[in-house]
Amino acid sequence: MNDIAKLGALAPQADTQADPHSQADLSAFWMPFTANRQYKAQPRLLARAEGMHYYTPEGRPILDATAGLWCVNAGHCRKPIVEAIAQAAGSLDFAPTFQMGHPAAFELSRRLVALAGKPFSQVFYTNSGSEAVDSALKMAIAYHRARGEGQRTRLIGRERGYNGVGFGGISVGGIAANRKTFSGALLPAVDHLPHTHDLAHNAYTRGQPQWGAHLADELERLITLHDASTIAAVIVEPVAGSTGVLVPPVGYLQKLRELTAKHGILLIFDEVITGFGRIGKPFGFQQLGVVPDLFTVAKGINSGTVPMGAVFAREGIYDTFMQGPEASIEFFHGYTYSAHPLACAASLATLDVYLDEGLLERAGELAGYWEDALHSLKGTRHVIDVRNIGLMGAVELESRAGAVGARAYEAHVKAFFDEGVMIRYTGDIIAMSPPLIVSKAQIDEIVGKLGRVLAAIG
Ligand SMILES: Cc1ncc(COP(=O)(O)O)c(C=O)c1O
Fold it and tell me: How far is CA 122 from CA 111, 200, 340, in A?
């Protein structure tokens, strides 16, 4: 017996009859972004999914009000997507995209660029939103260097921004809990815009708030402070999602666009949540009417089925890299699994589902209904704000003294066990983003269940 086989013999044998809820069975998984001990004391297991629902191991349906993790835009286990993945797994399990290629990667790129429309002309693939963000930041710095402005290395992010968990993403991001542990190891040349959340001015806004465009003027101050010649890029989420759905004030993104264009700074939109139909058009920038230079996507790119992310680049950026000897690699960056055949097949099939069923416009069609339903919670116990855009929404609760997040956690657990609905929480904000196939009756069901939960918790 070799050493590894000996270790296997010593390991406890898997018990197929094990109780899926037993705490001992759960200890080996170090869960991401989870209070592990709290979760394992009260596990919430999902065993299967279909359409708008998850099912627990006992078969109890859970209405999915969050599209998994903002990603399952086409609904769960859609047959054409599942079949495309299975077909790809059986015909081309893996193909490198370093110095090689496979047809689906090129076909998907053509289709994605067509969906984004001009001026976007190239797509660079990653395996996650975090990698897409770090790739976009590196692309911005490398672009300026290729243009002879190698001193432009500073990056500007935003307070409360969530741009994934790579060192680039947490450096430009603005969520203190994600940064503080690594504060000595963050990228050095980074500054931040203020966030746009202000309950005194904007509580219960429907869609984009009227107040707050002036917050983009802070960029002018940062440009004066650091000098435009040192700044490579500004990165923001068009709608800040993970921090609790902060909708951009009217005119705010336009101002960022004007200032970045004036000073030769690239504007990057992090569309990992807003991409693929979440706010009413294929991409958030199309709905909000402001065109960035680069934008990142992931999640909805294949409805969450196979890990994949991407960076879209506008015309001229790729061309700037295409200099020097033809035999030299133009951008020393990429991932083993960039444009993985299964992820590409899943994305191609997902695009077909989105287009055949009109899902990329559906959030726009349902936005008014969703808005009215969510705002009916105004006046419900604990609620201090409701906000929404497309099929994104947040209900902010008053925090318990000295226990930020405790009330929303209680709501999340009660919603799961007592009402059979999955909602997300961040601090004391409940965030929702149902799959784009949600019906009006299911919107009523989500809001009705949430209302009962809020009325019941202390
Ligand atoms: C705006 C934004 N950027 C980046 C990410 C990171 O994506 P991933 O978790 O796939 O790395 C997320 C994830 O929620 C996100 O919302």
Answer: 11, 42, 17
- Please list, residue by residue across 4-17, b when 16 or more beta carbons sit within 10 angstroms of its beta carbon and e when fewer do: eeeeeeeeeeeeee
Q: Please state the atom number of ligand 1 nearest to the C-alpha of residue 70.
A: 14
- DSSP-derived secondary structure for 357-404: TTHHHHHHHHHHHHHHHHHTTTTSTTEEEEEEETTEEEEEEPPBTTBT
What's the pLDDT tens digit per position in 359-382?
Answer: 999 999 999 999 999 999 999 999
Q: Say what the pLDDT of residue 18 is.
A: 59
Is 135 a pocket residue for ligand 1 (Cβ < 6 Å)? no
- For atom 7 of ligand 1, which residue has the closest CA? 129
- From 273, 278, 296, give the residue whose CB has the most ligand 1 atoms within 8 Å, as the site to mutate: 273
Global confidence as pTM: 0.95
Is the CB of 115 inside a 6 Å radius of any atom of ligand 1? no
Query: By 3-state DSSP, what share of the chain in percent is helix, strand and coil, each rounded to 5?
Result: 40, 15, 40
Nearest CA to ligand 1 atom 3: 163
Residue 388 Cβ inside 6 Å of ligand 1? The answer reads no
Collect all residues with Cβ–Cβ distance below 8 Å to 224 and sequence separation of at least 6: none
Per-residue model confidence as pLDDT tens digits over 194-253? 999 999 999 999 999 999 999 999 999 999 999 999 999 999 999 999 999 999 999 999
